[in-house]
Amino acid sequence: xxxxxxxxxxxxxxxxxxxxxxxxxxxxxxxxxxxxxxxxxxxxxxxxxxxxxxxxxxxxxxxxxxxxxxxxxxxxxxxxxxxxxxxxxxxxxxxxxxxxxxxxxxxxx
Length: 109
What we know:
The structure is a single chain. The protein is α+β, with helices and mostly antiparallel strands. It has 2 domains: about 1-45, no CATH class; about 65-109, no CATH class. The chain is built from 4 helices and 4 strands, in the order H-E-E-H-E-E-H-H. It has helices at about 1-5, 30-35, 80-90, 100-105, and strands spanning about 10-15, 20-25, 40, 45.
């Protein structure tokens, strides 16, 4: 995490279970970089950073969601329409938008 976050000083990580960690930074600049930077990806998983909440219980914690751009390289041209693109995206989660280049079959432009 030190390399990923480009930290200038030490930090302490404590595993509190269920995929949650408490991070304590020695430098405020490091804290600000981690809190406001990102998105952070570790071993193909998004890491979400949020401020500590008093009386935090990980069993009651709400999951954060992240919008991502999904690309389909070498997608055959017959799949370049709103309906098919939306169906593919829906299988991954909740689609927000289908890109105009996909809709117009303008791959590579």
